[in-house]
């Protein structure tokens, strides 16, 4: 005989050890419903046998090997609703919810296996007819115990409730005013997955809570098919929010170690049953409902399988694949305490679906969570921490006042922070704009300097071209008729291969190469001077480098500079030129005879 699963012991006893911060497995309780009247009429045999309080033995009708499954508790068809309530340990879940933990109870199984009956009892026989107390399900018994326990706590406890269903992958509020409408499932870092605009009703007593439950059950979708006359066609979630008032900070009493924190949650989930369309004979809308139910249950099973893999548990778990897995994410892999009640049919005809449910529950009980309760805000801090807290509060008030003074238009801390951020952003933007403007001006100045340098370069290039032209004109030999030497005092000199005279004195009307008087045409010895143009020594042993450049400005006849130039060229200035008048410095009365042309 093959044995599967692991003994978990009593779920209530396992939770007694305290789940805070420790890995706690999902508690699984198996319930086998009794044979129905129709099954007995057809003569079907039971394939399930309970061996003790924790082991279920499966005996295939064809004579195959027996298979055994072990769970936290196994309940056969002879157990009553009260026995199921006690064996599941739901009271301990209520205690944990009062201490601030998030607890979940959900049923799972094939259609017609008794899931809704286990949670809420049989359907009411008529409108407003209450369920007999002996047949009340886990939810009604938990409500009665929880309200009675809250009255003995010595502190007021506030209960609020919400009730929704997931029908064809649409979330509908069963407590909404008017017809239910689809609601969106959102997520944030603080709350996790939650239903937007879900109505939450405050509960004043047990009667009000029972009326709310009956109203939700009457509005829930259900249909009839071959295997079940009242088959639930949607997943239903009823959540109780348990909260206790928080004392004011100035009245902070020391926290009793056994005193529960401020809030908790207890959720009851009635999953729709898995079904085979061929066995149920569903058509049309029933087939669409069955496909959506099976798809969501398949996504739930996939998430449970990934949670069992230690390598994949801390990676991505596809809770977003369906609305059901989104709302059960915290119960399966989060910080809650979870109880699963697996319901199966003993009939051999339903054995394939029964084995699937048993394997599903066997995997689920190996999934672990880390239950965590919210920290209580009423705990008294040590004196050192209180002093530091007061100092930080004073510093916070002082900084807030300084920020308000910086920007009087911003009231409060939010306005001061906004003004501070706005000023910083504005200052940075202004600095960038000023830097950009400065760079633009600098670039404009550089462009102007470049254009000015370019213009000066063009002017200098033009001047160089003009000087080159003058130099070529001065060094060229001009043709002209030979003329007799004329008196240099009466006739102005004509240019030959020498530059024009540098001054208006008579000594400058001589050829720079041969010292001959210049006539109107040219120097009479220009043919003989041509080879000497490039000679570093000119006639008269005067170096060419000692001669003034052709672009030198002219000088006045009586200036000292002009006298020095004439002396350097070998000419003697006369009295009319402003020469010396002393006897020892007197010059000859006549000029030397110029050389005649050969």
TrEMBL record:
Q: Name one GO cellular component term.
A: microtubule associated complex
- Residues annotated as binding ATP are 109-116
Q: Which GO annotations describe the biological process of this protein? A: microtubule-based movement; mitotic spindle organization; spindle elongation
- The Kinesin motor domain covers 25-367
Comp. bias intervals (Basic and acidic residues) = 1-13
Task: Cite the residue spans of the region called Disordered.
Answer: 1-25, 534-598
Extract the InterPro entries matched here. Kinesin-like_fam, Kinesin_motor_CS, Kinesin_motor_dom, Kinesin_motor_dom_sf, P-loop_NTPase
Segments of skewed composition (Pro residues): 546-556
| Keywords on record | ATP-binding, Coiled coil, Cytoplasm, Cytoskeleton, Microtubule, Motor protein, Nucleotide-binding, Phosphoprotein
Q: Where in the cell is it found?
A: Cytoplasm, Cytoskeleton
One GO term in the molecular function aspect is: microtubule motor activity
Q: Which family does it belong to?
A: Belongs to the TRAFAC class myosin-kinesin ATPase superfamily. Kinesin family.
Q: Which PANTHER family match?
A: CHROMOSOME-ASSOCIATED KINESIN KIF4A-RELATED, KINESIN-LIKE PROTEIN
Provide the protein name. Answer: Kinesin-like protein
Recorded source organism is: Heterocephalus glaber
């Amino acid at each position: 005989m093959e044995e599967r699963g692991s003994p978990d012991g009593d779920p209530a006893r396992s939770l007694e050890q305290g789940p805070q911060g420790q890995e706690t497995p999902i508690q699984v309780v198996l319930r086998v419903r009794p044979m129905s009247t129709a099954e007995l009429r057809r003569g079907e045999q039971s394939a399930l046998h309970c061996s003790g309080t924790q082991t279920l033995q499966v005996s295939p009708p064809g004579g195959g090997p027996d298979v055994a499954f072990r769970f936290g508790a196994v309940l056969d068809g002879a157990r009553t609703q009260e026995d199921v309530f006690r064996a599941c340990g739901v009271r301990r879940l209520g205690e944990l919810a009062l201490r601030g933990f998030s607890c979940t109870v959900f049923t799972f199984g094939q259609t017609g296996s008794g899931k809704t009956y286990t949670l809420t009892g049989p359907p009411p026989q008529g409108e407003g007819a209450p369920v007999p107390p002996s047949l009340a399900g886990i939810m009604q018994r938990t409500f009665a115990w929880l309200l009675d326990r809250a009255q003995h706590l010595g502190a007021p406890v506030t209960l609020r409730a919400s009730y929704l269903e997931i029908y064809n992958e649409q979330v509908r509020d069963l407590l909404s005013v008017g017809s239910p409408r689809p609601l969106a499932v959102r997520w944030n870092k603080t709350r996790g997955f939650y239903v937007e605009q879900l109505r939450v009703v405050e509960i004043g007593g047990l009667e009000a809570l029972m009326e709310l439950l009956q109203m939700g059950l009457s509005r829930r979708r259900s249909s009839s098919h071959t295997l079940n006359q009242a088959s639930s066609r949607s997943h239903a979630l009823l959540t109780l929010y348990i909260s206790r008032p928080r004392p004011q900070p100035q009245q902070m009493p020391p926290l009793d170690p056994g005193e529960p924190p401020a809030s908790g949650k207890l959720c009851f989930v009635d999953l729709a049953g898995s079904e085979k369309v061929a066995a149920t004979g569903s058509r049309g809308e029933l087939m669409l409902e069955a496909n959506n139910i099976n798809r969501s249950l398949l996504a739930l099973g996939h998430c449970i399988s990934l949670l069992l893999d230690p390598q994949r548990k801390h990676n991505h778990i596809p809770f977003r694949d369906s609305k059901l897995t989104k709302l059960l994410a915290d119960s399966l892999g989060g910080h809650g305490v979870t109880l699963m009640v697996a319901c199966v049919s003993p009939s051999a005809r339903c054995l394939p679906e029964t084995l699937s449910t048993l394997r599903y529950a066997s995997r689920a009980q190996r999934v672990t969570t880390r239950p965590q309760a919210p920290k209580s805000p009423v705990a008294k801090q040590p004196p050192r921490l209180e002093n530091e807290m007061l100092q930080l509060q004073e510093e916070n008030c002082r900084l807030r006042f300084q920020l308000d003074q910086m920007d009087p238009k911003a009231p409060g801390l939010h306005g001061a922070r906004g003004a501070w951020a706005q000023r910083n952003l504005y200052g940075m933007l202004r600095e960038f704009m000023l830097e950009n403007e400065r760079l633009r001006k600098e670039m404009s100045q550089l462009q102007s300097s470049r254009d000015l340098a370019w213009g000066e370069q063009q002017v200098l290039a033009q001047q160089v071209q003009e000087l080159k032209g003058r130099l070529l004109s001065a060094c060229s030999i001009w043709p002209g008729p030979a003329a007799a030497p004329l008196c240099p005092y009466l006739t102005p000199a004509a240019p030959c291969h020498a530059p024009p005279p540098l001054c208006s004195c008579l000594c400058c009307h001589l050829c720079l190469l041969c010292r001959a008087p210049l006539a109107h045409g040219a120097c009479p010895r220009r043919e003989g001077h041509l080879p000497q143009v490039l000679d570093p020594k000119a006639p008269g042993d005067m170096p060419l480098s000692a001669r003034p450049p052709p672009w030198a400005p002219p000088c006045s006849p009586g200036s000292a500079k002009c006298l020095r130039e004439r002396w350097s060229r070998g000419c003697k200035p006369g009295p009319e030129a402003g020469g010396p008048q002393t006897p020892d410095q007197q010059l000859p009365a006549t000029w030397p005879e110029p050389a005649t042309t050969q």
